[in-house]
Amino acid sequence: MTKEKNARGVPLRVLIVEDSEVDTELLVRELRRGGYEPGYRRVAQSETFNEALDNQDWDIILCDYTMPGFSGTEALSLLRDRGLDIPFIFVSGTIGEETAVAAMRAGAQDYVVKDNLKRLFPAIERELREAEMRRQRMQAESERRAVELKFREVLAMAPDAIVAADENQRITIFNRAAEALFGYDAAEVSGQPIAILRPRHSAGTDQTDPVAFDGQPDTRGLSGGPVETIWQRKNGEEFPAEASLSRLVDNGNTTFMAVIRDISGRKRDEATLRKLSRAVHHSASLIVITDHAGVIEYANPSLLRTMGFAADEVIGRKPSLWKSGAAAESHYAALWETVLAGRDWHGEFQNRCKDGSLISVFATISPIKDPGGQITHFISIQEDITQRKALESQLQQAQKMEAVGQLTGGMAHDFNNLLTVVIGNLDLLRDEFETRPTAQRMAQLALDASLRGADLTRKLLAFSRRQPLETKAFDLNALVAATTELLRRTIGEQISIELDLAADLWPALADPAQLEAALTNLAINARDAMPDGGTLTIATANAEINQQFADRNVEVTVGNYVTLAVSDTGTGMPQAILDKVFEPFFTTKEEGKGTGLGLSMIYGFVKQSGGHVWIDSEVGRGTKVLLYLPKAGGDPETVAGANGDEPEKARHDATVLVVEDNAEVRDVAVSQLRTFGYQVVEAEDGPAAMALLEQGLPVDLLFTDVVMPGGMSGLDLARNARRLRPELKVLFTTGFAAMAPTGDAMNGDNGNVLRKPYRKEELARKIGEALGGREPGT
């Protein structure tokens, strides 16, 4: 350090160790002559020397070599023992070369002979300068050590693992985070190759490895930013990490510094995020994500595909894009109030697709929050429930139709018993009034009205799927062709009939007579829907219903079917009417022009046959009714017309046991049978009839109702009676088709069932058929 001199001299704090005051004054004058203004103190004993060192800082010490009771070497030793770095110069009268060398070895900076004080000033200048340089070096070293200490503290406290290695790639620094990350103690790895922290298969193969990095051009900074690589723990477990490597070169020494951050958790999170992203992308649910203002940022492919939009048509817009208008604004206000409050909203929407069609969705809309709890986005997950709601509607309709069917079926059964009594007695009265034309005409009018009532109950039974059916395999094309010839005369010339009949049509399995009636009914409905004329198209085809179609429609069974489609170009019907057309007594015709049972009968007949019915209509474009009939397993039978021959009124002396719980119905049957000449015995229930048979009563025919009280049905009675009398003939009667006996219950007497209400002629024919046409006593 160079000190500038001024007029007063450069201040200099000098401790003079000298026993001679004269020599001291001499030294002070020399210092002043050299441009210094010394502030000094003279000491000559060790005590005062130590005291001076304790009380003040000194720039330089000038010391005599030889003094009485205290020597210069002792003073130098005391100074060095204190560890003080103060320039120390011997100033002596006589000093030999050996003494001077010894003094220098003891730590003195220089020596000056009192006889030659000219050397004193340059020596002081030099020593002050060197002392300043030493102080600067010490300060720099101190600062370096402080920085190093702070650096090591930072290393110790750093959250990331920090590993340093020398130019031989041997570990020199291993902080606490590195210990926790790798599982080694710092002492274990100190001096070890850094390669122990890398899997063998990756060591030296990437930029974060010192072996590879060492071959790069010299650099004193980072290697170009963090990169991902694989490291290995003490237990052999490999893990991904983000590492930054720097190489420091100082005085030719190279140090590698690696900052390593375990990214296993981040990798797992990224993998989870990718899975979630793929799940959202491939989800069948309709998913849309908006920002906090409701602007769409993402829409998954299912939503775009279902609603017919492209991504760029929805991104940046709001979900009101597909608002249908079906819901009130209060519905949307409640939605926003819920999600802005941080809660999930659940509910149904109707969305309008790009093509204008509507879909029903069940949506869950949830707010997405940042770590601070602030809403940043909203996510809407929607399920397309259009098909489900359609199925629910179909199911509700089917359940309603079933309930109405059960009600009407039960009513029809009761009416059949009443009508059996009325029709039976009117038949008897009409015969009684042969000589009284007026009374006979009145009886005929009453009988005709009763028969219309019977026809009404038949229609109700058809709707309730409880009418008697004579199911057989038949050629639907042949039936359509034959029926069409009659229809051309019925529906008028203004209606054009077109046939589209499949050439390879399978045989159908149903009641041909009922299907003919259904076709006629549909044709008449079509005619009424085309008052100004039009085209009636009747088509047949083979059809297969698969599981996918069955799953989308209630009461539909997988299988092969034969279809009959009847289409018109008439006025058509709106959806509100379509929803009710199969309900009994529902009609759009004027009063007196329709009973409202036509389509109900068709619906019940087809369902009872194991088939299905669909109707499609559009206002102004017409209506199409499609009947699915089961495919028959065998060849079709010839569809024959009804046998119009009336049975002869044969009189027999056979004995008939009539079993009927309804006394009025029983009285009618007994009276009619007696008019035929039969011997009649009656019983009110099964046990009473069995009692008569067990008594040995001669009986040729058992005529029994099917449904009876007393714990024994007509079927049970027939079985018990035939065990007692195997040759006994049986004829059943019922007003409830579902209770009609079939198969084993009839013991081979197929067709021996008389449906209520029945005419006198029908009773006579069935009794004769059951008896096998034999004469009494044969």
Automatic annotation (TrEMBL):
The keyword Coiled coil applies. One of its GO terms (molecular function) is phosphorelay sensor kinase activity. PROSITE patterns: HIS_KIN, PAC, PAS, RESPONSE_REGULATORY. Residues 114-150 form a coiled coil. Residues 202-223 are annotated as: Disordered. The modification 4-aspartylphosphate is found at D64, D705. Keywords: Coiled coil, Phosphoprotein. Residues 13-129, 655-771 form the Response regulatory domain. Residues 147-199, 272-317 form the PAS domain. It catalyses: ATP + protein L-histidine = ADP + protein N-phospho-L-histidine. Pfam families: HATPase_c, HisKA, PAS_9, Response_reg. Residues 225-275, 343-397 form the PAC domain. Gene3D superfamilies: 1.10.287.130, 3.40.50.2300, Histidine kinase-like ATPase, C-terminal domain, PAS domain. CDD domains: HisKA, PAS, REC. Its EC number is 2.7.13.3. This is histidine kinase. It comes from Oceanibacterium hippocampi.
